[in-house]
Amino acid sequence: MLALKIPPLVIFLVVAVIMLALSGFHFEASGWSLVLSYAIWLLAAVIAVSAVLSFTQSKTTVNPHKPNKANILVVSGVFQYSRNPMYLSLAMILVGGAFWLNTLWVVLPIVGFVVYLSYFQIKPEEAALTEKFGEEYQNYCARVRRWL
Fold it and tell me: Which single residue of 2, 32, 33, 135 has CA 20 to 30 Å from 141?
């Protein structure tokens, strides 16, 4: 089974290459689409850095293949708004790329990325965290959405 097997960053890179191929390697961004892509990328970077800092300050693992190694449930900072801000930031980078490439076809791989991560990465992580943190994690899931 693919659950927790392929690192999310590898999936991200594969999707980015597919997006480039679908665009014909033409970069059409100009004007508003260029500004929008940079704004999305900047916001994604802020979210990702904030999420990683929250994990490191809490002295817990950022390894997506070992959710059972988490020693604390991080629910503050960006984790108040998204249970998966690191994955959200990767999806946002792809969305920014879609505006930069300025072609509709590149949206399809982004949808595939979100579906793949939800099923093969996030759901197994959620099962491991539920087992580890029980009701505390279930209450967190009831308060905070998976992506946004």
Answer: 2
| pTM for the structure as a whole | 0.94
Round the average pLDDT of the chain to a whole number and report it. Answer: 93
* CB proximity list for 84: less than 8 A, separation 6 or greater: 117, 122, 146, 147
28: confidence class by pLDDT, cuts 50, 70, 90:
confident
- Considering only CA atoms, give the Rg of the chain: 16
DSSP-H helix ranges across the chain? 8-22, 32-57, 85-101, 107-117, 123-133, 135-143
Smallest Cα–Cα separation from 93: which of 16, 26, 31?
Answer: 16
Residues ≥6 apart with Cβ < 8 Å to 51: 77, 78, 79, 85, 86, 89
Q: What's the average model confidence in pLDDT over 76-80?
A: 96
CB 83 within 8 A of CB 146: yes
